[in-house]
Design brief:
The complex is a heterodimer of chains A (357) and B (288).
Chain A lengths: L7 H4 L29 E10 L2 E11 L4 E5 L6 H8 L7 E6 L2 E2 L4 H7 E4 L11 H11 L7 H11 L15 H13 L5 E5 L7 H18 L2 E6 L2 H4 L4 E6 L2 E6 L1 H8 L2 E7 L2 H10 L3 E4 L4 E5 L2 H12 L3 E7 L3 H9 L14 H4 L4
Parallel strand pairs in A: 3-8, 3-9, 6-7, 7-8
Antiparallel strand pairs in A: 1-2, 1-4, 4-5, 9-10, 11-13, 11-14, 12-13
Chain B lengths: L18 H22 L1 H26 L7 H21 L1 H8 L2 H6 L5 H22 L13 H28 L3 H17 L12 H9 L3 H13 L5 H6 L5 E2 L2 E2 L2 H22 L5
Antiparallel strand pairs in B: 1-2
The chains are: A alpha/beta (357), B mainly alpha (288).
The complex binds adenosine-5'-triphosphate and magnesium ion (MG).
Chain lengths: 357, 288
């Protein structure tokens, strides 16, 4: 029942992963998937139902090793519920999920040893110092004694908090506390780091810093990152985005491809005679739409073609606007709604959030 | 872009072997955190002395005038082990509040999702509370000379051991209650409600014989009685009490006219501590 490396299976794995294969305790530690291509996360028709509410509906996706994968969706979309199932904190009511090759239902302990998790709500001990919080975590996650100090140094450096290591967390700003949590999630060298809304309630500068941290983790520690967010601009940092709404994935691709799916760039012209401009541009083969007080031109690359369009218009132009679809448009396109509804309440400082449950 | 060089990942630093050592390390770490937090909460340390001292002097002196002195032994001396117990009980029970606090501030989650045995977390917590409560009770001993209670080195050791046992039983009880209660206010209300009846009905503040039968019955089924009595027994054993005083302030619990031996009292306390420990661990079952 204890360590059961089947030998043959482990040889197929990339060298760097070999250290993490030996399972133990009472649970079968072998990965269920031994095929050459192994995903960091593989989810098939995963569902979660809370009574009448279907929080997650038959969601399927795969995350590659070393990928930064973002779940983008509004409040109540099912992001946290999905993370909780992947981290074995809540049992799926349907479907299967494998995390780092371990089944979340059959091998929950193995899963939890191979992941790092940063919750949506803060979970630091305010009365301990940064260092003490990390040391506590190191013990719970079995970092060998002689490596604890080295590892603490390293993760504090990754999030640039070395100078504050001896300070009580209660003296930290919300952003610092959040970054300490990310450092803590990385302390035990997880294969996959789950970040539930890592930038919640932070100002734009701190959010940018946080993203630097996250991308540095990926490049320096090779960790796979699964995160949720409802900030459009930061989903751009991800390699791929899954847009989730009402518990279902409505689109999944790289940020660029998603934007392409939404449509082309648009050039909006306000002119002295919109009808005439429309006619002139149509003659040159442009795809246009004449509106009440403007003309919209649909083109592949708005910024490059705008001068040519103006030349072809042959009428005095009072204003030009080039618009490239952004993720807001993507979200609108796939869900029929704007994502930016009522997020004011999320801008809580950290210590208030501690009381939310 | 998704094929970032995975080889950059450091070798996993997870000590996958030696399950027992790992759990022991966990227990020790949880214990250490309790102690660190306790030492940082100065006001809590002070406030938990106030009540027992108040009881010792107000109740002790007040009752002494009423009860009088028997062969040089007065009520102050009689009640002293009870007051020490009171300090232990109060501190032990309220030490479990840190769990409710941890729940409120999210840290409980950090512990509960970790790949460790729940039992180790509960045991670490309970041992932390036990250490703190034992410490508080032992510090009360400095008042002993003030009211004329003799101390010997052996007695101090015995008292510490009995305090630790009492504290462990009550901390596990506290942790059990905390595991079922979500809100801070709820925990405080429940504990305030049970704390005083618990102390009063344990015979910490009055002798156990000659009680009306209903009260005798309650004290006999109350587990704390069996933790307080041994403490009083070892303290009185070195006080050179004249026979009259020893008869007046008798120790020992009699059931159906049968005097329970000391070891059986201790056995009862251990049994209750174990029951609450199991209940406390099961109280932290997995969510969902
Ligand atoms: N424990 C629970 N019991 C009942 N319903 C729940 C529970 N947890 C989540 N839900 C419901 O499931 C749905 C999805 O919730 P979830 O927390 O996953 O959303 P989210 O995408 O994380 O939202 P947010 O951006 O607000 O964090 C919501 O309708 C929520 O009310
Ligand atoms: Mg959420």
């Amino acid at each position: 029942m204890t360590s059961n490396e089947s030998g043959d299976g482990t040889k197929n794995k990339p060298a760097s992963r070999s250290g993490s294969t030996s399972g133990h305790s009472l649970e079968v530690g072998n990965r269920t998937d031994e095929s050459p291509k192994r995903y960091a996360i593989e989810v098939k028709s995963l569902s979660k139902r809370y009574g009448e509410i279907e929080a997650v509906k038959e969601v399927s996706f795969r995350v590659d090793q070393g990928e930064v994968f973002a779940f983008l969706g509004p409040n109540g979309a099912g992001k946290t519920t999905t993370i909780r199932m992947l981290c074995t904190l809540s049992k799926p009511t349907g479907g299967t999920a494998e995390v780092d090759g371990f089944d979340v239902l059959r091998q929950p302990n193995a899963v939890r040893r191979h992941i790092g998790l940063v919750f949506q709500e803060p979970t630091l001990d305010q009365q301990l110092t940064a260092e003490e919080n990390l040391r506590f975590h190191a013990v719970l996650y079995r970092v060998p004694r002689h490596q604890v100090e080295e590892r603490i140094d390293r993760v504090l450096k990754l999030v640039d908090l070395q100078a504050r290591r001896k300070d009580l967390v209660s003296t930290f700003s919300g952003g610092m506390a959040r970054r300490l949590e990310i450092a803590r999630g990385m302390l035990h060298t997880p294969a996959i780091l789950f970040l539930d809304e890592p930038t919640i309630g932070l100002d734009p500068q701190t959010r940018a810093l946080m993203w630097e941290d996250v991308l540095r983790l990926r490049s320096e520690e090779g960790v796979t990152i699964f995160l949720t967010t409802h900030y459009m601009d930061e989903a751009e940092y991800a390699d791929r985005i899954a847009i989730i709404d009402h518990g279902s994935i409505v689109a999944l691709d790289s940020p660029n491809n998603l934007k392409k799916m939404v449509g082309s760039d648009t050039v909006e012209l306000v002119t002295a005679d919109n009808k005439l401009v429309g006619a002139n541009l149509e003659q040159h083969g442009y795809n246009i739409k004449v509106g009440e007080d403007n003309v919209t031109v649909f083109v592949e690359n708005g910024e490059e073609q705008v001068t040519q369009i103006i030349a072809h218009a042959q009428v005095a132009i009072s204003s030009v606007r080039v618009h490239r679809p952004d993720l807001d448009d993507v979200f609108l396109h796939f869900t029929g709604r704007e994502i930016r509804e009522g997020h004011a309440e999320r801008a809580f400082p950290m210590h208030f959030m501690a009381f939310r449950r | 872009m998704t094929t970032t060089n995975i080889s950059a990942r450091p070798a996993r630093l997870v000590d996958e072997h030696n399950y027992v050592r790992h759990e022991l390390r966990t227990i020790q770490m949880v214990w250490r955190r309790e102690i660190i937090r306790f030492l940082r909460a100065r006001t809590r340390i002070l406030s938990s002395f106030v009540q027992p001292i108040l009881f010792l002097f107000v109740l002790g002196y007040g009752m002494t005038t009423l009860v009088g002195t028997t062969g040089g032994f007065d009520f102050k001396k009689f009640v002293f082990p009870g007051i020490v117990s009171m300090a232990v009980v109060t501190t032990a029970i309220f030490s479990a509040i840190s769990i409710v606090w941890d729940r409120e501030f999210g840290f409980l989650r950090e512990m509960l999702v970790a790949p460790v045995n729940r039992g180790s977390l509960v045991l670490g917590k309970a041992l932390g509370g036990t250490t703190i409560a034992t410490l508080q009770g032992t510090i009360m001993l400095v008042l002993a000379p003030l009211i004329g209670v003799h101390l010997t080195p052996l007695l101090v050791v015995e008292v510490i051991l009995l305090e630790a046992l009492m504290a462990f039983g009550l901390t596990t009880f506290g942790v059990f209650v905390a595991s079922r209660i979500q809100k801070m206010e709820g925990f405080q209300v429940v504990m305030q409600l049970v704390l005083f009846p618990m102390i009063f009905l344990s015979g910490a503040l009055f002798p156990l014989d000659g009680l009306p039968s209903w009260l005798a019955f309650i004290t006999r089924i109350h587990p704390l009685t069996y933790a307080v009595d041994p403490l009083r027994h070892v303290v009185f054993a070195v006080q050179n009490m004249p026979p009259a005083a020893a008869a007046r302030f008798a120790t020992g619990v009699t059931i159906f006219g049968h005097l329970l031996p000391l070891w059986s009292e201790i056995g009862i306390v251990i049994a209750f501590a174990m029951i609450f420990l199991v209940l406390a661990i099961s109280g932290f079952g997995r969510p969902d």
